[in-house]
Amino acid sequence: MRTDTAVRQSVVFRVRRNTELGLVILAAVLIVGAYILASLGSTASLPADIVPFLVIILGLIAAAHVATRRLAPGSDSILLPLAALLNGIGYVFIARLDNDLAALQALWTALGIGAFVGTLLLVRRARDLERFRYTFALIGIGLLLMPLLPVVGQNINGSRLWIRIAGATFQPGELAKIVLCVFFASYLVEKRELLSEALHRVGSVMVPNFKHFGPVVMMWAISLVIMTAERDLGSSLLFFALFISMLWIATGRGAYLAAGGLMFSAGALIAWNAFSHVQSRVDIWLDPWKDASGSGYQVVQALFAFAAGGFAGTNLAQGRPDLIPYVETDFIFAAIGEELGLLGTTAIITVFVLMVGTGLRIAMRSESPFEKLLAAGLTTILGVQSFVIIGGATRLIPLTGITLPFVSYGGSSLIANYVLLALLLRISHDQAERAQAQALAQDETRF
Amino acid sequence: MNRQIRRLGIVLVVLFIALFLNLNYLQVVDAKRLNDHPTNTRAVVRDFSRARGVIQTSDGTVLAESMPSSGQFENQRRYPEANLYSHITGYFSFNFGSDGVERTYNDALTGRTNNLSIDRFGDWLLERERTANVSLTVSNQVQHIAADALADRKGAVVALDPRNGAILAMADSPTYDPNPLASHDLPAATADWNKLNADSDKPLLSRAYRERYFPGSSFKVVTAATALDSGKVTVTEPVFPVLSELPLPQSSQPISNFGGETCGGPLPEALRVSCNTAFAQLGLDLGGPTLADGAGRFGFNQVPPIDLPFGASSLFPDAGTFARDKPALAKSAIGQQDVQATPLQMALVAAGIANNGTVMTPHVMKEIRDSEGEVLQTYDAQAWKEAVPADVARTTRDMMVEVVNSGTGTRAQLPDVQVAGKTGTAQTGRDTSHVWFIGFAPAEAPRVAIAVMLENQPNVSEATGGILAAPIAAEVLQAALAANP
Hints:
The complex is a heterodimer of chains A (447) and B (485). Chain A is mostly helical. In chain A, 72% of the residues lie in helices and 5% in strands. The longest helix of chain A has 42 residues, at 2-43. By secondary structure, chain B is of the alpha+beta class. Chain B has helices spanning 2-29, 31-35, 42-49, 86-89, 100-104, 106-109, 114-117, 121-126, 140-150, 178-181, 186-198, 220-230, 267-272, 276-286, 288-298, 319-324, 326-333, 343-354, 390-406, 464-483, and strands at 55-56, 62-68, 75-78, 92-93, 97-98, 132-136, 155-160, 167-173, 240-243, 245-246, 255-256, 263-265, 358-360, 365-370, 375-378, 383-386, 420-427, 432-441, 448-458. In chain B, a hairpin with an 8-residue loop joins strand 10 (245-246) and strand 11 (255-256). The interface between A and B is large, with 53 and 38 residues.
């Protein structure tokens, strides 16, 4: 009977991987098609470097697929194809905007896939991570605050988010998100009983007990430091939202959500009063037209790009997204909006919704509280980050300079997101393996 | 925890729905307002960047072409002939729009006409717009000679084929170089624009078809043809008295001939020597309504439908004004007072006589071809005005032959070709006048009609037009006849 089950397990796993292969091929076809269209649009003939490009991109995607086949065969089958699609479409747009950046982005993609495989290799069981929680806490906070250090810390475009080591710049905050997410998951799982009891009733409202409120205050302080010292509104919001929502998921206490929301609002209000860069961001959001050729230029140009795209877009390489400053990073979504139209932007949003849905499904299916919380946290990072930057680019919320996961140009971001993806797949695989083991146990009791 | 995770999912989905709704608003609902927003230069930048087709002369000289460029705009418009054709091709500028053929045939040059865009499936798929090339009726040879003949004198030469209205040359002086206006260096382009606009010589103004001048005696062709058409006058009757000045009703100021000369006789003789007193009397005899109607049938008071933008109409006073003002009628009959004409209009008067009384629609476009050389559109000649019947036109032509053979226009004679024409001198100041020559050749089967106008020339006499303008006409006619067999 054991062999039967083993065979059944391998069949289930193989079906998942073959589904993934099919979807990966579909994504590859879409990427290659988009690349050919973009090349034709700008030069009227296929560029000579199309073959090396295809080999690199298809090779990298194939490598990632082989890695899941070998290292996480039971994992979910749609996350990797979706990520590959986003990565590929982003690459096409970067290549269409700037050839030099495209070469670098190919390198970052390779490093990202490398990080993906490396994470799957290194983290053989998601629960292994739980043991190193305080190490992760230290690493996370260290990474977060690293840009504030003298010498290595770098100010780029008014934000202090970068470190420079040996000539290469890196945004440690991108990785810090994931490392801290692992820490939050393990910390909150350990303390969740305590934290959910640490509330007392004032009138009809539950108020957290101050004694156990230390971690919340600490995260709040850290997020304020990021907002003020590093001048990064987006990351600040992301960290705090991540922590509060994980705290809420772990404890089930809405009071934390309310308190966190209030604290963040208070912090934001203080920051708005105290710091001109926060004020100007909000002013631009409220009325970008007031200084459409100055401070509001970027946002206004992005709005024009979306409008120029309309329903079906100007088509690849037929628009002028290059009129938007920082289009490859913060505003890549506006480039997509211009050239692929509402159809394209809706497709990208759908991909993110599918990824978020899949991530949360992985979280819900997992029996281990730690893995559940970690998967939910990682998915929150992905969801909130894409919402914050898309919302900023479309003027739904004030603009914050963070990247669109997998799509924007940038090495730190790609590497971090591939690590995030690998962790989600690892949790998914662990869960599938346990489900199979359970089925096996049931089979044994039945016969 | 699953309950919270589910709720988290709901929250995230709501956020993404908000993004989706906002995108619908931006890209569909609000898109038109954003696209039309005054600070939105996107459409202009796109149009300015786009490759445009070539504009060339009938003999293949490239007048405008797009060269790939780096920077904000992908294509740079070049005008290899610089000043020579600027009033025909116009310019294509970022801040100041476009003019001339660049403007009229913009859709063809950018490939936006219907028969261009869905030509090939591949192009359709990519929405790539293929540009088309515009060939003009203008001959580079004739244009050069016309411009050289004007030299640095202010004025204009318009030569066209009277049979179909094809413009063979349209030279202006002064003129401007469209290259700096098309520059991607926008502040430099603006500086050049401001300089051209501040220039008192008005180089941006096409004297040929956008500026009106007193036509002076060249208008007598219209008066003579109208008189013949009215039936009140023949080549023999009446015989106008020989006078040096004609007293006018309602006025103490008589009309006099240049230099106090005396002249008179029947219509051909009056035209041959350009007799003011005779034509003033003729105008009074014909009456305001007849003369105004005659001028209108040659195209006065209407913008000639040439395929160039912003043309000016020529002016002839309303018939009603003459009822109370007889002197005005007499002066209008000799092309003075309130009569004003563009050189293009006067060329069309000559062309109408040359083409048996029918004025053809003037045009500069010969044909439009796609990038593969396939003809997409050719200009179909069409009549604009039925000015006078053919027999009236023939009689007028014979009288104009005499002007060139033995009258004021002898300097327009060509060795082997019979030229018909009429001179004009319109006094504009104490010692200045606009001088004119209008005519056509060969008289028996005209292939080229012409108007030459020089602005504010020194000297005032009936002979001035013949001395200054007629030689230019002869030179250009000769070249145009060779170029337009």
